[in-house]
């Protein structure tokens, strides 16, 4: 177990009574995560810092040159031109060294940043590809997008700029102060007389920053999620004239974020404005020139030495602000690193060391128990057998566990107890790639990628030919719609092609037809379809399910009356199962559901007739 994982274990084990200690442990976890994520850049950052030290040393040379040239010009007798030109040459060389060394330092750190971001994004994508599919159902797309884009981006300044700029910000005034103390120890003290006041105020401002940043990050996640939701459903929203209501969640999330930010940042801005006066350039100039005048009158230093020390002093404000800004950036980066590390530490879908291949296309649920959170059981000892080539329908009220049970077959989640078997083999013992060659699924929430329509269908089988793609689309009753697009099958989804819910379902069905899996899970495949689309989807599905083992979920009972077995779930338990006629004759829960369904259909037909 790594130090980061140990720190997370401590955070998870913290009792509710120790919230303050838990926050400290969480901060420790974030710092360790940041150190671990930045480890690959450490060597190059150290090399860049050495270049920057050389650049910082060269930065002080012009100040020394001014003092030396001033001494030469103010000396009794004619000026020593040789000495003056020598100093000028040294200053020019120093300026060249500063430019080259400083540029090299930034080039090194930017290269390190590019490599780090590429590596992290590849690791995140790899991790996302190995997580259980059910993991994505418990998180908003805004949260995932924030991790891949925003959180990785938070590390940019820290890697590409902070190490070099911090080194320069600290080393340049440090070398300058050494020179000031060399000139006279009083000039050294005078150069930094106002800095302690600023630092004291800044440290006080840094308290409780982590808690506030966590609040803001949660606010950003909510805003991202509501934006994605609004954009995804904007066509439906505008069609039904509910734009105002639909974007209210986004407006509420934005208002909450703004209020929290203003509440936190308002007092900080006022105090920081006052504290910044202490290191404002005019204030430092006034302090150094006034003190320098006193020192000159006292005979301790010369005027040209006061000028050199004053020029050094005015480099301090930029240095202090840079270090303060970097400290703030580091806190943000640490929080982002903590979130990234938690994602990277999320347990991936377990893969069997010696994977097995299913013998046939049968499905068996053996005393299956399941819980999403480990505390509240969703499925209670479900046992079912689905012979190969049969159609089994799952029905029941909302929350009865239908979708949960169905998604255990393609292993969106793993059971808490019992087993789900395909062809006599536990799905946990089947390699994921092999599992998805056996199990296909058409879900109610269809996702089409921003690529061509053909490539969206070809996700079912990457090596499919164009003719096979067209054949699948034709079977799914979506070929004519695709051909009506500006670029046909080459049309890009959401650019050239905008599909309705029912049309997107048929594209998804074409994908499943092309994949040609012997087992198929259908979850509310007609949920978002209008009557015309539903009819076409049903025609496509009737062709899709031929010869396959099918597990279908449907609220519209009329679509599953011919199923080989209808399973009624309630409260995560099987309460009835059998064929349509058998269940009607039993007069149980299915019969009552059928009565409600037929009554609703009759009423709907009457309303249409009017």
UniProtKB/TrEMBL annotation:
One of its GO terms (molecular function) is ABC-type transporter activity. Residues 53-257 form the ABC transmembrane type-1 domain. This is ABC transporter. The keyword Translocase applies. Belongs to the ABC transporter superfamily. Siderophore-Fe(3+) uptake transporter (SIUT) (TC 3.A.1.21) family. CDD domains: ABC_6TM_exporters. Gene3D superfamilies: ABC transporter type 1, transmembrane domain, P-loop containing nucleotide triphosphate hydrolases. The chain crosses the membrane at residues 51-72, 84-108, 155-179, 185-205, 277-296, 308-327. It is found in: Cell inner membrane. It comes from Mycolicibacterium flavescens (Mycobacterium flavescens). It holds the Pfam family ABC_tran. InterPro entries: AAA+_ATPase (IPR003593), ABC1_TM_dom (IPR011527), ABC1_TM_sf (IPR036640), ABC_transporter-like_ATP-bd (IPR003439), ABC_transporter-like_CS (IPR017871), P-loop_NTPase (IPR027417), Type_1_exporter (IPR039421). Keywords: ATP-binding, Cell inner membrane, Cell membrane, Membrane, Nucleotide-binding, Translocase, Transmembrane, Transmembrane helix, Transport. GO terms for cellular component: plasma membrane. It is a multi-pass membrane protein. Its main location: membrane. Residues 363-596 form the ABC transporter domain. The keyword Cell membrane applies.
């Amino acid at each position: 177990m790594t130090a980061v994982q140990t720190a997370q274990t401590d955070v998870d084990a913290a009792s509710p009574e120790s919230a303050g200690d838990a926050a400290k442990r969480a901060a420790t976890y974030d710092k360790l995560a940041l150190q671990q994520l930045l480890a690959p850049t450490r060597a190059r950052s150290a090399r860049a810092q050495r270049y920057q030290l050389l650049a910082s040393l060269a930065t002080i040379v012009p100040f020394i040159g001014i003092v030396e040239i001033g001494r030469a010009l103010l000396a009794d007798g004619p000026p020593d031109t040789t000495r003056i030109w020598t100093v000028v040459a040294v200053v020019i060389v120093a300026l060249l060294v500063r430019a080259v060394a400083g540029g090299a330092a930034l080039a090194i750190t930017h290269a390190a940043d590019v490599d780090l971001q590429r590596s992290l994004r590849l690791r995140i994508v790899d991790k996302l590809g190995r997580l259980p599919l059910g993991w994505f159902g418990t998180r908003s797309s805004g949260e995932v997008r924030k991790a891949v884009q925003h959180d990785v981006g938070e590390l940019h300044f820290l890697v590409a700029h902070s190490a070099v700029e911090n080194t320069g910000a600290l080393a340049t005034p440090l070398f300058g102060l050494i020179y000031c103390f060399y000139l006279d120890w009083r000039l050294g003290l005078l150069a930094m007389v106002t800095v302690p006041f600023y630092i004291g105020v800044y440290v006080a401002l840094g308290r409780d920053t982590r808690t506030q940043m966590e609040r803001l990050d949660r606010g950003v996640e909510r805003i991202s999620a509501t934006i994605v939701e609004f954009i995804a459903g904007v066509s439906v929203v505008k069609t039904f004239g509910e734009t105002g209501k639909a974007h209210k969640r986004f407006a509420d999330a934005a208002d909450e974020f703004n209020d929290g930010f203003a509440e936190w940042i308002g007092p900080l801005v006022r105090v920081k404005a006052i504290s910044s006066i202490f290191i404002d350039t005019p204030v430092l100039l006034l302090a150094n020139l006034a003190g320098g005048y006193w020192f000159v009158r006292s005979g301790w230093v010369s005027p040209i030495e006061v000028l050199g020390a004053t020029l050094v002093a005015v480099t301090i404000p930029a240095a202090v602000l840079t270090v303060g800004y970097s400290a703030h950036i580091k806190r943000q980066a640490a929080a982002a690193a903590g979130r990234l590390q938690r994602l990277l530490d999320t347990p991936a879908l377990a893969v069997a060391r010696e994977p097995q291949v299913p013998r046939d296309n049968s499905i068996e649920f053996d005393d299956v128990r399941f819980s999403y959170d480990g505390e509240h059981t969703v499925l209670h000892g479900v046992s079912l057998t689905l012979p190969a080539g049969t159609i089994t329908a799952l029905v029941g009220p909302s929350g009865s566990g239908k979708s949960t049970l169905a998604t255990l077959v393609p292993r969106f989640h793993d059971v808490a107890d019992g087993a789900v078997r395909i062809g006599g083999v536990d799905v946990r013992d089947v390699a994921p790639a092999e599992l998805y060659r056996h199990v296909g699924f058409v879900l109610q929430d269809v996702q089409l990628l921003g690529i061509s329509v053909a490539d969206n269908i070809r996700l079912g089988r990457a090596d499919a030919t164009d003719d096979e793609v067209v054949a699948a689309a034709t079977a799914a009753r979506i070929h004519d719609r695709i051909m009506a697009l500006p670029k046909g099958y080459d049309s890009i989804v959401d650019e050239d092609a905008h599909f309705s819910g029912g049309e997107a379902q048929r594209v998804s069905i074409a994908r499943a037809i092309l994949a040609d899996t012997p087992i198929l899970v259908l979850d509310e495949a007609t949920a978002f379809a209008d009557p015309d689309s539903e009819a076409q989807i049903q025609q496509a599905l009737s062709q899709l399910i031929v010869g396959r083992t099918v597990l279908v979920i449907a609220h519209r009972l009329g679509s599953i009356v011919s199923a080989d077995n209808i399973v009624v779930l309630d409260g995560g338990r099987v309460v009835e199962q059998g064929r349509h006629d058998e269940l009607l004759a039993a007069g149980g829960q299915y019969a009552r559901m059928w009565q409600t369904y037929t009554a609703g259909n009759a009423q709907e037909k009457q309303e249409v007739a009017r």
